[in-house]
């Protein structure tokens, strides 16, 4: 046991030489042990510092993946999106009656529903070039356009001028640029972490479901009440009411919305820093988009178009089709559309929770499959002439739930796979796909009865089938982080 006193006190003794000699040297030099202890302590502190720094960096990365903007700003964006959706759909149930009263057709009413998105798309070409990456001024333009467009829409009855309906909706179209800015805000890498983008997109779809259910319901209710007045009646009241609502919401937004930070003026330090960053960027070229990523971009744009094409066509077709098949009034048709939205609402709320755990590609497949089942059932009941409230409602519920669910993940999936610098571009691509679907879908829905309902539904099945081929081809490339 006496030999245990000869064992070295540190691991360094093994590296520095013979332990017997080291023990002898230590006994001859009393300061030797203290010097070794100092070296070991310094090394230990340095290693712990590196580990702590590494852990700090990891925590910072994790925090950045879950970051969110202020709640007040999120309320303006998400609540405003719901209100914009409501404004878009409130005219659906009475548009055909309004157009017919002023000498228009069902196809014209479908055009009035879909035309705003055309001019919204044109306006975005110019507005996105001057917005500076900010949101306040585009939103202010949107609010003003909604107020003016709603007033013009309401005045068409008094003026007895059919095309004033169209003019009012065109002006409102400049307000629907907010659809792009809502999506861009909820995927903006400056304020939203990568694991919160699908969750926020799900909230946008909740607003979308609110809009296409509550909008037609209130529009149909106002039409039924009537208000026997040339200025404020069943078909003009949606315009007047929404003008007042938008004035109030604009005031609230001005008070509580906080825009993203602006770029600070350059100082000498920031100029030198930008020079060093520029030198680094010359050495390291910007990330390139691979052919597989281009395939994902095309696939998501196609699905974005598909979702709004089918939803828009059903929303504009239901008032026209049910007026002949089930003898529905605009009030009944509005309630029918709203019932489908209300029934899908709980499932969309569940999606907000489960979006944090389920991959985007799975959500997309689930939603599209549900919608396709609804379309196939619709083909069957049309073929066997079994049109009843129950059978038609099942089809509408599956279509509304499925394609609303599928629309939650198109932009969020792209924003997770592509560089942050591409967020503005992919937001534009997805929004133009939405607009394309809304316009063509609304026109198709208005003409559905005239072209034959079997042909009308067959077109939608074909559109979904093409998307299914793209999806299966790109299954592996569609994988992205959850949340």
The parts where pLDDT drops under 50 for at least 5 residues are: 1-17, 19-27, 50-61, 265-284
Task: Give me the oligomer status.
Answer: single chain
* Order of SSEs: HHHHHHHHHHHHHHHHHHHH
Distance between the termini: 62 Å
Tell me the helix content: over 70%
- Helix-strand category: mainly alpha
Shape: globular
Mean pLDDT: 82
Strand elements, count: 0
Largest sheet: none
Q: Tally the helices: what do you get?
A: 20
Rg of Cα set: 30 Å
The portion of residues forming beta strands comes to: under 5%
Q: How would you describe this structure to a colleague?
A:
77% of the residues lie in helices and 0% in strands. The protein is mainly alpha-helical and 483 residues long.
How would you summarize the topology of this molecule?
Layout: H1 12-16, H2 19-28, H3 31-65, H4 71-89, H5 92-101, H6 106-130, H7 136-159, H8 162-175, H9 178-185, H10 197-225, H11 237-256, H12 268-283, H13 291-325, H14 330-354, H15 360-383, H16 389-406, H17 410-417, H18 423-446, H19 448-451, H20 453-473
Helix pairs in contact: 4-9, 4-10, 4-11, 5-6, 5-13, 5-14, 6-8, 6-13, 6-18, 7-8, 7-11, 9-18, 10-14, 13-14, 13-16, 13-17, 13-18, 13-20, 14-16, 15-16, 15-20, 17-18
Give a short overview.
It contains 20 helices and no strands. The chain is mainly α.
Task: Quickly list its features.
483 residues, mainly alpha, 20 helices, 77% helix, 0% strand, globular
């Amino acid at each position: 046991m006496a030999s245990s006193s000869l064992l070295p006190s540190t691991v360094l003794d093994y590296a520095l030489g013979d332990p017997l000699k080291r023990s002898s040297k230590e006994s001859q030099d009393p300061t030797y042990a203290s010097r070794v202890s100092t070296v070991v302590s310094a090394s230990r502190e340095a290693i712990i510092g590196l580990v702590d720094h590494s852990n700090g960096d990891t925590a910072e990365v994790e925090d950045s993946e879950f970051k969110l903007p202020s709640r007040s700003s999120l309320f303006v964006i998400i609540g405003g999106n719901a209100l914009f959706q409501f404004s878009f759909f409130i005219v659906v149930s009475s548009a055909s009656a309004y157009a017919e009263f002023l000498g228009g057709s069902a196809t014209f009413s479908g055009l009035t529903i879909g035309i705003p998105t055309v001019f919204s798309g044109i306006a975005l070409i110019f507005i996105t070039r001057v917005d500076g990456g900010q949101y306040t001024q585009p939103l202010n333009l949107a609010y003003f356009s909604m107020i003016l467009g709603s007033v013009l829409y309401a005045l068409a009855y008094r003026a007895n001028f059919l095309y004033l309906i169209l003019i009012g909706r065109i002006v409102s179209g400049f307000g629907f640029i907010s659809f792009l800015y809502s999506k861009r805000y909820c995927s903006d890498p400056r304020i939203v972490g990568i694991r919160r983008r699908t969750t926020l997109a799900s909230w946008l779809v909740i607003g979308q479901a609110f809009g296409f259910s509550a909008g037609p319901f209130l529009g149909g209710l106002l039409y039924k009440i009537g208000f026997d007045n040339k200025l404020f009646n069943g078909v003009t009241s949606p315009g007047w009411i929404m003008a007042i609502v938008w004035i109030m919401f604009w005031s609230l937004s001005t008070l509580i919305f906080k825009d993203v930070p602006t770029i600070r003026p350059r100082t000498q330090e920031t100029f030198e820093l930008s020079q060093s960053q520029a030198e680094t960027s010359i050495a390291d070229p910007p990330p390139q988009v691979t052919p597989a990523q281009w395939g994902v971009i095309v696939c998501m744009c196609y699905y974005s178009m598909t979702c709004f094409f089918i939803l828009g066509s059903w929303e504009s077709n239901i008032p026209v089709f049910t007026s002949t098949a089930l003898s529905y009034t605009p009030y009944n048709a509005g309630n029918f559309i709203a019932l489908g939205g209300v029934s899908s609402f709980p499932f969309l709320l569940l999606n907000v929770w489960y979006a944090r755990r389920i991959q985007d590609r799975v959500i997309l497949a689930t939603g599209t499959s549900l919608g396709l089942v609804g379309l196939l059932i619709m083909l069957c009941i049309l073929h066997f002439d079994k049109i009843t409230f129950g059978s038609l409602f099942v089809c509408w519920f599956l279509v509304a739930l499925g394609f609303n669910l599928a629309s939650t993940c198109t932009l969020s999936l792209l924003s997770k796979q592509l560089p942050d610098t591409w967020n503005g571009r992919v937001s534009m691509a997805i929004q133009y796909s939405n607009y394309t679907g809304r316009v063509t879908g609304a026109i198709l829905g208005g003409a559905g009865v005239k072209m034959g309902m079997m042909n009308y539904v067959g077109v939608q099945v074909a559109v979904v089938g093409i998307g299914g081929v793209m999806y299966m081809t790109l299954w592996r490339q569609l994988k992205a982080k959850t949340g």
